[in-house]
Each structure stands twice: as structure tokens, then as C-alpha cells.
Amino acid sequence: MKKNVLIKGILLLIIIALLTIAFTGCYATAGTVYLIVSGTFFYDLEMDSIVRFWGVAPGTYILYNVPIGVHFFEATDAWGWIWGYDSVTQYITAGINLVYLFP
Q1: Where are the domains of the chain?
Q2: Which residues is 86 bridged to in the sheet?
Q3: Dihedral pair phi/psi, residue 57, rounded to 5°
Q4: Could you give the dihedral angle defined by the CA atoms of residues 75, 103, 76 and 98, in that order, rounded to the nearest 10 degrees?
Q5: Each residue's pLDDT tens digit in the chain (103 positions)?
Q6: Assigned architecture for domain 30-101
Q7: Which residues contact 37 (CB under 8 A, 6 or more apart)?
């Protein structure tokens, strides 16, 4: 009787361990960023000093698969920063993230 309970207990632990490994391997490593730009001119939009959109009108722009962590976002007027500039540093999580820029 004790041997039977011991075998069932070990099998149960193995099943729980396998399920734990299977489910923890399915976590998100990236998020989606909605860049919401307000203004009246055209802007270059950057993330981490890399231009993602050139000469775009105010509106909402989407960046997919942005790694989780701290990122630096900028909006610069297409004619130069003296005409309009805004930046924000924000921690990006898995899922949807809203970034507001007011150049």
C-alpha cells in the first residue's frame, strides 16, 4: 500500500513539474507601443535614437514587438528641433503601452 502511494506521489510531482515548465515558457517578452503625437506640423519619431517614422502628421503610430524595459521616445519637427521637440523615457511592459508626445 505504501509503495503504491509513493509511486502516485512521484508521478503527480513529475506531472506538476512538467506543467510548470510548459506554462512558464509562455510569457511575453515584448509589448506594443502606441505613439500618440499632438501638434500642428510634421515630425520625425524616434525610439532609442533610431528614427521609426519620418515626416509624419500628428496622430497615433504603432510600434510592435518592443522589448520590455526602459525606452526613450522623441518627436522632432521635420525642419529641426527648434520648431518643435518633445521626449519621454518610459518603461514598456508586455501588452499595450501608450506614449504621449507634445512637440
Answers
A1: 30-101
A2: 75
A3: -75, 160
A4: 0
A5: 566 777 777 877 788 776 666 666 667 789 999 999 998 899 999 999 999 999 999 999 999 999 999 999 999 999 988 889 999 999 999 999 999 999 9
A6: Sandwich (2.60)
A7: 43, 45, 56, 58, 59, 60, 61, 75, 101, 103
